[in-house]
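Lab notebook: predicted structure, single chain.

Context: the supervisor wants predicted structures on file for every construct in the current expression panel, including those that have not yet been purified. This is the next one on the list. No modifications to the sequence; it matches the entry in the shared construct table.
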Amino acid sequence: MTQEITARLIDQNLKTSSTEPELSDPSWRDAYSDRDLGWLQFNSRVLHEALDERNPALERVKFLAIFTSNLDEFFMKRIGLLRTRSQAERLKNRVIGPVPIQQRLHEMRQVIIPMLQKRGRCFRRDLKPLLAEHNIHLLDWDQLSETQREKANLFFNRNVYPALTPLALDPGHPFPYMSNLSTSLGFVLRVPDSEENLFARVKVPNILPQWIQLDSEMDDARHYIRLADLIHYNAEKLFPGMTIIDSSLFRITRNSEVEIEDDDESESIRTIVAEELRQRKFEPVVRLELSENPNPWVRSLLMHQFDLSEDDVYEVPGELDYAGMWPLASLDVKELRDEPWNPIVPPDLAGEEADIFSVIKSGDFLVHHPYESFDASVEQFIRAAAKDPKVVAIKMTVYRVGDDTPFVRSLIRAAETGKQVACLIELKARFDEERNLHWAKELEKIGAHVVYGVLGLKTHTKIALVVRQESDGIRCYAHIGTGNYHVKTARLYTDLGLFTCEPTLTTDVVNLFHALTGRSREPSFQKLLVAPTNMREQFLAKIRREIEFQKAGKPSLIILKVNQLEDSEMCQAIIAASQAGVRVECIVRGFSCLRAGVPGLTENVTIRSIIGRFLEHSRIYYFQSGAEDPLEGEFYIGSADWMQRNLSNRVEAVTPIELRSHRERLWEIMEVLLKDRRQSWVMQPDGSYEQLVATEDDDDISRLGTHRTLMLLTQQRMKERIK
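Prediction complete. Output recorded below exactly as produced.
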């Protein structure tokens, strides 16, 4: 990257990543928290789920893996970005020595290290013994019996040895390339009768399980050995004739925040993204993780080769990569897992004879995943449209769809039967670029209209449109959701979706698709809130209106449920509302740059985070609007968090919820979230969070928590419908 490009990143592209808000009133600074430290607090809450003895053991292992994956992404994106900023500031301002960003990176390190220590203690002291009590034994090499060692070595010879590629470092062998998040063994070798250290690297192959199950000498027991240990204790087979002095396990993380410059209309965005993926493989290393007590010579050599400082190196207690524990976390041991949950099929959509278009035509239809079936509703909507001879066109936006996606298969089937298919695929969806490129090519092969979005914006909205020729003319059916069209995450993430054929709303959806696929510069919308067109202004106007209702002595209340709260303009509007006496309830799963309960600023603001079995992903926005009956207020759902990128740099869509029965359901969801004392963490005025604890006097919702309560309510609702 040239100095000019790096400097431009500082001036243009990194403004949206700043943790310093632009305040209209400097006295409001006490109401703001650091974005990155806030995110680390969120991941600490995720780690707490692994520490929480109320959770089953394998679910706790799962949370260790989630915590680790989250932290990996944080280093790839945020730490990588801040390191780039640090280098760019030196270039731009010709600074020699440390810059303020380096101090921030050091502060984050001081937060991360205790979390890694907690993770290691949890696994070693709590989970390994607990799993052993249930005959799941995660063993070190010296704990294996002679028979088990023989079988492990035989497995190595047959399945591991052929897959390994030892790479030496010497004048004839340059330092080997190492891929992002790869785990390796670094060996210290010597030629016999020599005192010179030689380095060799062996990658621990990720195509094999990171924990190898061994045949048990007890029928009901499972025994596992680390793949890395298996390689270590068979290393003499890799380096015959050499003396092995020592080895250290290490893992690298590369910067993934490669900037995509898509303002050149002459170059295909597909070509640009493909080049970014190629470039990302060779981005600088931003973190080196080593197992405890690494060989000092290996440690120093790696730091030198990757140009790292001490602050970039982490000696990790416990396991090095808990993300490799997903297979263990998925073991089918009922007493160590959450009670299984099978999403319920809404009665109107049950059975082979169910006609989803007739159901939508009879009235708007609201679904809540994963409590209600995604397969029987959202997936069925596109599948039925692909088969229906009356359907003339299908349009969808795709942000993340996963590997084995039924949606793309349905779109391909529709295009092959002559239907018009238009699919807007966001190629810049972070870490899904390669997958989305693949599906774009598959759709283009069969003649579907594939569009890559609007220049300069990411398309994050979750909408689908089906155009159907019916006896009384053309009718449009739409799905407007809060989550991705992804069948796997639909079982893990909470999301909402509205199916509608209401003409005004579907016309808005048609207009949005025309703006996305065509050249419309000023699309008009009557009901939809669309970013970056009108969403920010509409939300700000609604907050100002709540202030006016409060001043007039009328009911006022704002409830906001989002994943992140960061946009400075929206935060300042919330501060103004709080100062006017408006109660603002914020349910923010991840980080919030706004602090709650700060005297004189956010005294009327509460911010809570719900962490548990499902990932809270749905976005709900509520404004009481002076109504005595809260159900007469304004309800919205959609794809946008209140972040600067969502409101200004992405295409997002938010829909009003107008049917009273649907409003009742949203109100029920929000009441459950606000009553939760099992999974809820509440922010304190200093920006820290305290976990709520239920007492015997609390009601069932408070004690059971959000996810268990909503599962029970969904079952109850369906039983009543069937009666």
